[in-house]
Each structure stands twice: as C-alpha cells, then as structure tokens.
Amino acid sequence: MARRFNQIAFIASPTPDARQAAELLMQRYDHVPPEEADVVVGLGGDGLMLQALHRFMGTGKPIYGMNRGTVGFLMNEFHLEDLIERLEVAQRSIVHPLLMVATDVLGLTHTARAVNEVYMLRQTHQTAKLKISIDGQVRLPELIADGVLAATPVGSTAYNLSVGGPILPISSQLIALTPISAFRPRRQGSVLLPNHARIRIEVKDPEYRPVAAVADHTEFRRVARVETQLDRSTDLVMLHDPGQGMDERILREQFG
Questions:
Q1: Which one, of 148, 140, 201, 133, lies nearest residue 178 by Cα?
Q2: For this structure, is 46 an active site residue?
Q3: pLDDT digits over 195-204, tens only?
Q4: Phi and psi (nearest 5°) for 22?
Q5: Per residue in 168-197, pLDDT tens?
Q6: Which listed residue (17, 30, 38, 46) is catalytic?
Q7: Are 82 and 76 within 8 A, CB to CB?
Q8: Which segments of 56-90 does DSSP mark as H helices, in order?
C-alpha cells in the first residue's frame, strides 16, 4: 500500500535535547537529505519551526515538528515510536506569509517574508511617529508609539498577543494591526484588517526618529516606509496530529 510520504528528512535546533532526539530518530527510520525529502521532521521549539518554514518557503514541503524546545505552540509531542503512522494521519494547516517591502532613508528597498509578524520599532529613546494607510487611504495620520506590528493568525499568539493584540483563528482571513506602547492616540488599540489589505506605514522624521523594520527575524534599520500584505502565492504547510491542528491550538489558547 502506497505511503503518503516516502522520503523523510530530519532537522534539529542546536540544543542538546533536540540533537539527541534527531539522532535517535535517524537511527530508527530511513531518511534522506532535506532537499530530497517530501516531508521534513523538525526537532526543537517554535523557533525551529519558523526557521524551517522560511528555509523551505516556496517548495510546498510540509513540516512536521516535534517539541524539544520550551513552549512548542506550533509543535507536536515528541515520541520515538510510530512516526510513520503519525505522518500518515497528520492534518495539514496551510498558511501564507506576509511580504514586507521596506524602503530605507537612502531610497534602497529591501524585501522579506514573515510567518508571524512584520513590525516597526523605534531605534533610539525617541518615540516613533508613523503615518498609516490602508489600501491607499490614510487611516491614521500620526501614531506616536514605540512602533506597530502586523500579525498573521499564526503570529497573533506571539508578539502581537504580548502587546495587547487579539488572537485570530487560523481560518479568520484577518490581519491584526497592533500599536506597540501607543502614546498618541492614547486609546488606539489593535485594528482588524481583511487579509487582502495593503498596509503602508511611513516614518515621519526618520532621521531624527529612526525606526527599524522586522519580518520575523530579518531586520532592516533606518527605514523611511514599509509596505506589507499577505503573499497568497506562497503556501506554508505544517502537519499536526489529529485533533491538534492550528485551529484547535488557537482555540485552546483563547481559553487559557
């Protein structure tokens, strides 16, 4: 009987627990280099999962993570046994990254993609002054804050939640736009946008109030403006055990 996945690769974060787990799995199961695999099994925490999604972005290669890290929100439980059987019945979660195009004060453009969030953050003691437009229309002429972030549903439980943003169900087709320590307007909270929205954030006085732009772990400094929107042309595939998919995980997170 044909198997769902025939070529398995293992990758691991550099921690001792993750590396040991990968070695034990490779002793037990046939494996190939990641470039030849049709599924990648990642050992580590959420950071490892994000790295794997970035590494294999654009390939459509599914990632099945097993937790050998700390939180492991995106990961499955670690077991040595029954890996083939678990992969056969795993549920797919397909998400799309945010595409960020940042223009710096010299006029140079930089691009990066984010699975979790795109955010802008002040670089000095001076607060950032930002102008926010949605689909070409100015919606907030001036936000004075430490910064602002745009989060995908996957990323809504990470930095976005820490700064007071909402948790988004994975199927919500929304982006959360959340100020970071807003000073003016005082009551400016998170805004929910449709996931087809084009977000443009301009830095007012970027020389005196320098701002950095970050897409997950890729940072560009002294930016003048950032444009970001969902990249629907890129599918990112995560695999989870039955009943443990992203919808279920995010629902559990909302109930603490």
A1: 148
A2: yes
A3: 999 999 999 9
A4: -65, -40
A5: 998 889 999 999 999 999 889 999 999 999
A6: 46
A7: no
A8: 83-89
